[in-house]
C-alpha cells in the first residue's frame, strides 16, 4: 500500500506508510536471523546521548531516524502488541511522569480514544489510581466490557459543554464520590488530555486541586491554543507538561503490561473498503479505541498472522 507524502521531508513518491509494525525476518544474508521478531515504530533511532535524549525526550533528538519518513514503513501487525510501539507508549510515559498514587484522582479527557483508554487502564491497573473518564456519551458504549478497566467514574461531555458549570459540578461530585466520606471536597489531582479537539483545553486548571498537573497529549487540528490565568497557575502550584511519545523502554514496558493481562487494548478491526468512512469518523470524533484495517495475508506468512494498516483515534 503506497501513499503520497503528508508533508515536506517525506518521500515524494511510492511512500510505504505505517509506523507500528511487528513481524518476523523471512530473508537475511545471515540465516541465523530468520524468524527473529522485528518491530518498527515511528521513532526508529535516537542517539541516546544528546540533551533531548538524556532528558527523556527522544522524539526531539536531532539525529533521529523515523518510519516512514527516513525508512519504508510497514503494515505488519501481530495482535495488540504493535500499538505498544507508539500510542500506548505515549500513555505509559504520561502516567510515569504524572507519578500518581492510589489516593489520587486523575481525569482523562478522551477516555474512549486510542491513547485515552490505555491511559485509563495503566492508571487504574498499574498505579492503582482512581480515574474519571471524560468523553462524548455516544462513544462510551464503544469501550464495551472494558469500561470497568478504563475508569471508575464516567462524566459525559457534549461538544460545547466542557468547562461549563454543569460539567464542573459533575466532575466535583465524581471526585468526592471516589475519595469517599470524611475527605474534604477537592478536584482532581491530575488532568490528562488525550482528545484531539480544542474543547478540553478550555481552562483545565479549574478541574484541578492545589499542586495538580496537566498533561497535554492530544494535539488539536492546526496546533490549537490554550489560555489560562498565570496567577492561578502560580497560586495553586500547577504543573503543565506535554508528552508526544515514549522511547523503546516505554514500548517494552507496555508490551509486558499486555502480556501480563494488566492491559487489554480496545481495538476495532475493519475491512479495507471501510477506510474512507472511518477516516471521516476521525474528523467527527466518532471512533473508539484503536482502528485496525485488515487486508490480505502475506505469502509465506506465519499461520494466524495477518496484514494490517493501523490508524489513530
Automatic annotation (TrEMBL):
A GO molecular-function annotation: metal ion binding
Superkingdom of the organism of origin: Eukaryota
Keywords annotated in UniProt: Metal-binding, NAD, Oxidoreductase, Zinc
Cofactor: Zn(2+)
Annotated ranges, domain Alcohol dehydrogenase-like C-terminal: 114-257
One Gene Ontology CC term in the entry: cytoplasm
Keyword NAD: yes
This protein's record includes keyword Oxidoreductase: yes
InterPro entries named among the record's database cross-references: ADH-like_C, GroES-like_sf, NAD(P)-bd_dom_sf
Protein name according to UniProt: Alcohol dehydrogenase-like C-terminal domain-containing protein
Species whose genome carries this gene: Aspergillus aculeatus (strain ATCC 16872 / CBS 172.66 / WB 5094)
Organism taxonomic ancestry: Eukaryota, Fungi, Dikarya, Ascomycota, Pezizomycotina
